[in-house]
Amino acid sequence: LGLKRIKIEEAEAGDIVAVTGLEEVSIGDTIASLDLPEALPRIEIGEPTIEMTFGVNTSPFSGREGRFCTTRKLRARLYRELQTNLSLRVQDTDSPDTFLVKGRGELHLSILIETMRREGYEFEVSRPEAITEIVDGNLVEPVEALTIDTKGEYVGALTEMLSKRQAQLTDMLNDGHDNIRLEFHIPTKGLIGFRSAFLTATRGDSIMNTIFLGYEPWQGKIITTRGGVLVASEQGIAVTYGLNNAQERGNTFIEAGTPVYEGMIVGMHARLQD
């Protein structure tokens, strides 16, 4: 029951139907009878809070992994995504090979990136940044409510991590069984890169959710320290001997037999310098 499609003349409340023959229909539109053309309230879609650039791959290995590598293919795919991804925004830039893409968060854009990668598109992206605006002459930035469900042993580490990201603890609840709920008020820029650090710090034993709240005065830049990286000195194929030497200085991302080019980041250095 309900596992196949059947042709019907009418549908009732609760039915899931597929309609064909209508052009330029968007999410939130109402299909109504000519006798009673009353539209339902449109679904409100939140505005983007994160932006990043998409561009053609400019590395020395361009064209080796993807089937669609040109600007024309990339542009067509991004603008086609706008037909079904309502919270996405795409803009042309001064560079014909680069496009500005805005979304509702890191996860939103990362899903798009992974989907396009699996479809065979090859491109490069920039670091995501929070979208700021000017309101009444003042610079404002998006802020979100962050809710974390975790264990008591991780509360200290999470609070310290988030305080460095300009987050403010607004509430903490304990159910008496060592299950803690933390609620934070945090600028969107403070959430960039936090999810992976969060999963590492809690060993995957916690859950985080965010809700967009609005715009508030900009709180300034978040001071971060970047660890050093291991960089390939020339183009070629990585060999076991070379990787063993590199691993004495940090952790490598690649394995023996991986093609590398000069300037390619191949690992993290144990110290701050590259």
From TrEMBL:
One of its GO terms (biological process) is translation. Keywords: GTP-binding, Nucleotide-binding, Protein biosynthesis. Residues 228-274 form the TypA/BipA C-terminal domain. PANTHER family: RIBOSOME-RELEASING FACTOR 2, MITOCHONDRIAL (PTHR43261:SF1), TRANSLATION ELONGATION FACTOR G-RELATED (PTHR43261). Gene3D superfamilies: 3.30.70.240, bipa protein (2.40.50.250), Elongation Factor G (Translational Gtpase), domain 3 (3.30.70.870), Translation factors (2.40.30.10). This is Uncharacterized protein. Residues 139-224 form the Elongation factor EFG domain. InterPro entries: BipA_C, BipA_III, BipA_V, EFG_III/V, EFG_V-like, Transl_B-barrel_sf, TypA/BipA_C. GO terms for molecular function: GTP binding. Pfam families: BipA_C (PF21018), EFG_C (PF00679). Signal peptide: none annotated. Coiled coil: none annotated. The lineage of its organism: unclassified sequences, metagenomes, ecological metagenomes. The keyword Transport does not apply. The keyword Cell cycle does not apply.
